[in-house]
Design a protein that fits this description.
homodimer; mainly beta; five-stranded antiparallel β-sheet; 9 strands
Amino acid sequence: MQNIFSDIPENLKDELSEILLQSSGFRVERIVSDGHCSKAGFWYDQSEREWVILLQGSAGLRFDGQDDIIVLNPGDYLHIDRHQRHRVEWTDPQQKTIWLAVHY
Amino acid sequence: MQNIFSDIPENLKDELSEILLQSSGFRVERIVSDGHCSKAGFWYDQSEREWVILLQGSAGLRFDGQDDIIVLNPGDYLHIDRHQRHRVEWTDPQQKTIWLAVHY
């Protein structure tokens, strides 16, 4: 048994992404952000679909073509379609933000 | 956007299980227990594999052939192989226990 809130390095230069489970057609990842956000002008444009839930911390997500930033708090989840361009505007500067993502 | 800790009926006669995401080869479910446990003598014996994380509450899980009860607290996750017989000995009587399960 492991814990998703444990075994996190204190100092994270970059976002930390680890595969927790992988099988035919999907993978489950833990992503840890430490105040990280997408670089200016960068958009994720993924060939896979993603279901993502935020489990600790908070984050601001923006979809291309939408002005509003979607604020995610613990327990919030949403679906990102393939090639649905999006970026992380900010993550909590006070604590690690922990995401669980299913890419499929 | 939805929240995994929200939209839970106050009174749950039985465990509540909902599919949050389903695609080829896997499905993601939210399971809500309200002090529920497996009936005496009952064992889950599933043809699918399961990756499960407890997100709220607590639970005691037992695998067939093992005397020890595994206590899960928020963030704890584990993998259950197909036909790995197991049962839920108890869930938190004080609050709803919320699980996220990936069946594949």
